[in-house]
Each structure stands twice: as C-alpha cells, then as structure tokens.
Amino acid sequence: MKDIFIEGQTLPDAYHQGIVRLLSEGQLADCTDWNLKNLPSYQQLEARMTIHIEEPLREPRISKLAICGPRELEQYRLEILDGILDFAVDVQIERDGRFEALEDYTYHHRMTKPEDQLAFVIDELQRNPEMSSRRAVIGIRDNARDSQLANPACLQSIQFLVRDGKLDICVLFRSNDFAQAFFMNAFALICLQERLAEQLGVPVGTYAQTSNSMHVYQQNFAVFEAYAEQVLNKPIEDLTYSYSGFFKDLMDAERPDILASFARQRANYGLQ
What we know:
Strand content: 25-35%
Number of strands: 12
Structural class: alpha/beta
Shape: globular
Number of domains: 1
CATH topology: Thymidylate Synthase, Chain A
Number of helices: 9
Order of helices and strands: EHEEEHHEEHHEHEEEHEHEH
CATH class: Alpha Beta
CATH architecture: 2-Layer Sandwich
Radius of gyration: 19 Å
Largest sheet: 8 strands, mixed
C-alpha cells in the first residue's frame, strides 16, 4: 500500500494537501465490507496516510471543503468532548425479536467507560514534573466487541505526549473516510487536545494522525475531484473560514437546540 505523508501548518492546509495527494497517489481497491447493492462492484481510492499539523489552533481552522455545517460539527464536537450520545450505548431496543444497543459504541464512551482513560492521561502526565511519560495512551479498540460488529470502531488509539513544554497528540485510525469523516474527526480531537492541554496548564503542540486506510468511496470520487480542482486553482483564503468569531458563533448558536434534542431522546427512553 502506498504511504503518504502530509505536513501542514493548519488543519485546512493539511486537509487540502491530502485531497490532492490521495487523488493523485492513492490506489484503487475493492471495498467488499461496504458495498452498494445496486453496483456489481464497489471501489475505494486508498492509501496509508499520516497527517502532521504543526499548529492545530492556528486560523483559519475551518475548510469550506468539509462535508459538514456548523450544526453537524458542533454536535460531533459535543459527542467527543462531552459524551452527549453515550446514553445510547446503554439503551436496549428490540430489533428482529432480540434486544440490541441503540448504538454499539461511541468514542467518548470507550474513553471513559468502564475506566476513565481521560483522567488516567492527566494523572499519568502529571506523574513527574517534566510530564515526560510515554504511557499516556487511550485505547479505543475493544477487540472482543469490534471483531463481532458490522461497523467496528475506526479510531484505535490516542497518545498524548508533552514535548518542548507543549501537549502533542498522536492518533491512529484503522480506517478513515477522507471525504466524509476526516475533517470532523480531526477537528473534534484537536478540541479534545486543547481541553486536556488547558487542564495540564501547557500550550497545544502538534497534531498527528495516521490512518492505515485513508480512503474515498466510489460514490464521492466526482466530489473529491472537484475539491482537488479548487485546491489547485484557488488561494486558501477562498476555501476557509476563521473558527474564532464567525464559525464558532454559528456553532455556539446551534448548541442549545442540539442539547435539547438529545435531552428529548434521553427522555424518550426514560433517562434523565
């Protein structure tokens, strides 16, 4: 499999480079685990990709080429940071005569249940004055569960390292949909990095993400080709938004309705 290394100053910078590189250097591969029933075969464009972002909080932080709006991005951020969907892992519903969880997992639930791995990371990094530990790792994969699921967890692990006085984060995905998931994944995990850095009292360092199968599905080839054309022919200023102020205000405005919607879902299942 082809290895691609991307190095960017900001999240949109790295994302845009990745769009062009995956289209030009990725390999076509069959995708039997995610097939469209109306097609005789279904393909993906794939490469192993590492994306290194030098300044994750540097503006602009929002790409106009991300397939999400302020509401979707804020909801996902709340799911990762605050676990607003975690209740669904414990809710049992009847499907085809048997009871199953409403959601097989959430990343936040895996981070905090049955043990609070986020608290472990803080404790481990504070274990010595230099915060030099290499052991502050959160494990997401549950092999006993994921080996049986139709849609096992894509995120596998997150490692936190304090180097040069800053909190770096190293993320591993087994599989990552570059068109529809990468930007939201990376944005929310950078927000998690920012939260833990604040708790540790250190600045945010670099963000690095390795995806062993970074891919674009066949149904998104045309959209991604159009995105690459824009990246190659437009300045980055035309393809990005500032998060601070403009886009953050839009996301903040969506938060009350998102929380109210999730509160109603919880109430429907008899939960507080």
